[in-house]
Amino acid sequence: MATITLEDVAQAAGVSVSTASRVFSGTTKVRADKHAAVMKAADALGYRPNAIARSLASGRSMLIGVLTQDTSSPFYGEVLRGIEQGLEGSGYSAIFASGHWRVEEEASALHGLMGRPLDGLIVLGGHTPDERLSTLAAQLPLIAVGRGVQGLETQCLRIDNFQGSYDCARHLLELGHRRIAYIAGPASHRDARDRLEGFRRALADWKVDEDPNLLVEGDFLEPSGLMAVEALFSRGALFSALMVANDQMAYGARLGLYRRGIRVPEDISLIGFDDLSSSAFTTPPLTTMRQPTYEMGVAAAEAILAALGGTPLTPPEFRVQLIVRESTAPTHRDRQRLPPPDPQYPGERL
């Protein structure tokens, strides 16, 4: 069988060879009708573009490295889905590597990625020092998602974890809760530290003393939420609400409460952070803080493509949103509702 060439596809589609080439390279936008005609002709003829030849001709590998924590995580999975969607039609493909929440494994995964001929790099959170990322950013376009990097502020896509956590705590405080237990994420993660800080600031603004006995650290995974609840009860801790640094740990915490016959929210209110797709279908549906994970993935892909094209990047603003469902309710005990804190902007950092 004769080899199908790009010229054959162009002729069948009724376009020039250069137009057909632009369709497959994704480097320049092509009119929708011509794009559709080229793709239809390619499918009919069984044409598959030669990625190696294309990269040699362009001087680019057409590969984007993506350093994540865990490809199986529902949170990171949504971000990765957004990245794939954002790269669609661009001619670029993503290569994923996971650090699995460990400093050494993340460093190894990054080393493996950088051993490939990447055109750009997207980093999702993680432990990699700012200095290392700054060095890499001098070598190739780099976008960081879910973290800040000193000196690379315009290349970072972030949400305000501090304010999001503050708003979660404020929701519980406004419901009258004063004994609020907190399951934190690992202290080595910036977003976990910011969320803990937001929780603490809310308590301080409402003149509620923090009880160290009500704080447990988890690892952002479901089993640690379950174990955290067991740790709280083994201490004899008394609380009317449980705030958790992410939804996955909240799922484990919910199981721990269920096993002890504790009703949510009748006995204890429960709130998470992330608004994973499953959170609307837990029993009861989980109150949580929504962050635009998929949209951040799309934006990361668009940002890396803009950087590759030499287009100045203006990071979009991402907002979190409190999603109130059925897992939180007012306390049953008599209480005095305290007024909101005095500052004009509650939760603003000093």
- Our measurement of the CA-to-CA distance between the termini, rounded to an integer number of angstroms, reads 72 Å
CATH architecture of the largest domain: 3-Layer(aba) Sandwich
Number of domains: 3
Tell me the overall shape. elongated
Radius of gyration: 24 Å
The largest beta-sheet arranges its strands as: 2-1-3-4-5
Structural class: alpha/beta
Which blocks of ≥5 consecutive residues have pLDDT under 50? 334-339, 342-350
In helices, the fraction of residues equals: 40-55%
Continuous helix count: 12
Bin the strand percentage: 5-15%
In CATH, the topology of the largest domain is named Rossmann fold
Mean pLDDT over the full residue set: 87
**CATH C-level name of the largest domain:** Alpha Beta
What is the CATH H-level superfamily of the largest domain? Response regulator
Order of helices and strands: HHHHEHEHEHEEHEHEHEHEEHE
- The number of distinct β-strands equals 11
Major beta-sheet overview = 5 strands, parallel
Report on the structure:
This protein is an alpha/beta fold and 350 residues long. Helix content is 41%, strand content 13%. It has helices at 6-13, 17-25, 32-45, 51-58, 74-87, 103-114, 130-137, 161-174, 190-205, 222-234, 247-259, 293-308; strands at 63-68, 93-98, 120-124, 142-145, 156-157, 180-184, 215-217, 241-244, 269-271, 288-290, 321-323. Strands 2-1-3-4-5 form a five-stranded parallel sheet, sandwiched between helices. It has a four-stranded parallel sheet with strand order 7-6-8-9, with helices on both faces. Strand 3 (120-124), helix 7 (130-137) and strand 4 (142-145) form a beta-alpha-beta unit. Helix 1 crosses helix 2 (17-25), helix 5 (74-87) runs parallel beside helix 12 and helix 8 packs parallel to helix 9. It is elongated.
